[in-house]
Specification:
The structure is a single chain. The chain has a domain of 113 residues: TolB, C-terminal domain (Neuraminidase, 6 Propeller), CATH 2.120.10.30. Helices cover 13% and strands 28% of the residues. A hairpin with a 5-residue loop joins strand 1 and strand 2. The protein is globular, with a radius of gyration of 21 Å.
């Protein structure tokens, strides 16, 4: 019983130390960009840092209301790299994934050739390539970002469609 009591006290001390670290001195937050709808809006995921040091992300707003891909320089300058127009996708719910080559992969919830969403590749300069449009049989409406697995492939999920077991 004495050993269990010691472990419990050790955990309590660890929790208290962790709480003290969280409550450390106040942090200063700096707003780099305000999204106003026309320059993008509702970025749902944190941006990721590209190989060039800029921050890259996507949003559901923009001039067409279908979404944008943007970068933000370390100085806080927003650059809209691509404006989606439904034919190449709509609804950026999942974030971007950085490839080892420095390009980005992303998904759009809807739009594309079938209206069921797309997977795209984008260069840091903003050149977009649609890699595919979902058909329903292979899934539909991707909602999350793709992930790079240890086998070198990217994987993701869709919210609808696909085959049933």
């Amino acid at each position: 019983m004495g050993g269990n009591m010691w472990r419990r006290r050790t955990c309590e001390i660890c929790v208290l130390l962790a709480l003290a670290a969280v409550a450390a001195p106040a942090q200063t937050f700096i707003t780099l960009v305000n999204f106003a709808g026309t320059n993008g809006g509702n970025p749902r995921n944190p941006p990721i840092q590209g190989l060039d040091g800029n921050l890259y992300g996507n949003s559901s707003g923009g001039p067409n209301g279908a979404g944008t891909v943007f970068n933000i320089t370390p100085a806080g300058v927003l650059n809209t790299l691509h404006v989606f127009d439904i034919t190449d996708g709509s609804g950026a719910f999942g974030g971007l994934a950085l490839t080892p080559a420095g390009t980005f992969l992303g998904t759009m919830f809807a739009g594309g050739a079938t209206g069921l969403g797309t997977v795209f590749k984008m260069t840091p300069k903003g050149t977009l390539s649609t890699l595919g449009s979902f058909t329903g049989a292979d899934g539909a409406n991707p909602f999350d970002a793709l992930i790079l697995a240890s086998d070198g492939n990217f994987y993701g999920t869709t919210g609808a469609g696909g085959r049933t077991a």
